[in-house]
From TrEMBL:
Name the UniProt record assigns to this protein: Peptidase M1 membrane alanine aminopeptidase domain-containing protein
Annotated source species: Corallococcus terminator
GO MF, one annotated term: metallopeptidase activity
Domain of life: Bacteria
Residue span(s) of domain Peptidase M1 membrane alanine aminopeptidase: 288-458
Amino acid sequence: MTTGGEAPVRIRCVPLSLLRRVLSLLVVLGLGCESPAPPPIKDVDGPPLAYAVDLYDLAFDLTTRELTSRLWLDVKGAREGCLSIPAPEGVTDVRWQGVPAVSTRTVDGTLEVCGRSLLEGAPWIDSRYVVPEATHLYTQVGFSRRPDLHGDVFSYLLGWVESCDFLGPCDDAPDRLSHFTFEVTHAPGAVVLCPGTLSHPDETHTRCELLGTRAPTYSAFMVASHPAWKRTRLVDSDVGRVDLYEAPGGLLWPALDAAVVEDFLRWMTARFGPLPYGPELRVAAAPTEWLGMEHPANIVLRDNLPLLPKVYANMALHTWMHEVVHQWAGNRTTLASARDYPWKEAVAEYLTYVYEDEHRDGEAASTLAYWDRLARTASYHLRPSDVPAPPFISFANDIYGSGPMILLLQLESLLGRAQVLAALQVFLAEPGARSIADLRAALEGASGVSLQRYFETWVDGAGEPDWPFFQVEWREEQALTLTVTQRTVAGTVYPCVVELELQGDAPEQRQRFTVSYGLEPLSATVRATVPLPPWTVRRVEVDPRNRLVNRRSAGLLREQPGSGFELRLQRPTEGDALQEDRPGQLAIRLHELRCGRGFTRVREEDVPGRIQLRSMAVPTTDGDAHDASVAERRSVRARCVRQPGLGVGIR
């Protein structure tokens, strides 16, 4: 999905929906009372069955919202017993192989079904459920009807990570891959999309079959309909057929260059093989909450993408490419657990960036700048070990900058782009479930080096990430000698390559080079000697191309005075918080206390040892603002956290 916009790993004796558990917790906290204990589980009529859902046969009526489900099970030869599957309250008419089940009940979001197989072949269970017209938390998960810019109503049945059980009985584990069929009943002439191959038995029915490559429930549980969609063929070639479904006068048709669409498909298929769900790829424009969402053989894009602030150089094209990557990375190859969500989004963003860097002049720079802004304010590590674990919906929205930068981009500088791409080819070569640990193994295999230290420092951890910041000293003698010191609160030294840009008085006086801490840094300080440029070095910019996650110090200049190195402030700005590093040297650290639209202010404990300047907010390009307050070398610390579902918008 293009942002982010879920939960930590769960031991799944009985699968439960993360969003349902969050909602239950909110209700308990809001009422100030204990939730009722679930009724005790009585003796069941048979042993518990280990199962997998091999096929979901689903019939959905867009008018009545009734979902009829038939789940074909692989129970490894068992002929009778009981199974537990996530399901909402209100499931009715539960049957086992066409006859009433021996017993059924719903307990704490789980449907318990007991039965005996009287027929040969795979057993199945049938049920009915009227899906509420409701969405959950800050997402569009559930069933919704929303008017577009012209007043036409878009209907969307949408699952997500560990959330398909809001829509009916469904194994919501992210690592489960299944087949699907959809039979959708709708008004005459309505245009309906769903996963897999599409057919129209008559004017009130649309059928989709996903019977080849398997797909995860989080993205395959989907029906989308819009009465004004018209189909336009964007690409018809040997790499695929791309159709755009958009209302007349829509904004995506002029924004999606058909030649670039075809070229990107060629670029992807040359590296990862044919489109996983057949040669037909349908792209739909709709009034969605997220910028985009991947479904097998379908992509749903927000219909006003070209009008949004340009965090990417080309909003529509970048989002479309991101969702195309998900056909391989996230659908055919899925998540081992909800905790592995960062790799899915990191791969989609990274491959889109690589194509922009190689084929779209100047566009990659905007992508890197956006990642960097997001990463600097990340609230969680990519594999958080916090207890309690962070809410998945907040965690998932937090990784759209730090994920691609840490898991892939920064490793270009340490390993090489060719090695990173080779690792991704291995990682995505086969259908199945993959973890962040599997991605690390692929990167180590392609490069031949250990990434243990890298992952221990950059990927794993509890609490707010302690990203490094860098101080630079330089001396001009026969050559230019630079000393780069990496600073962190905890003293951690991160494996990385740091790009520096020497700057003179004139705009054209620029010279870049890199210093490397390597994969096993021995010291927080590295030194480099470079030829003297033919102009006086006035300042050194750290990470000028936004390729490294690090703390920035706004307004900080690093200058070479006559007697040596000093740090000084140019026009100190009220609202900046200063931390003393050693006598005479100050590095500005901003502490976020006042937040803009789409952000939530989270207050933390007082932090000692900070010197403050007073009181004016400093706006940033990310929509938030930074502020600080005075308290005798003591400051109140807070964070601006993106509200769930309102920050980054790609899934």
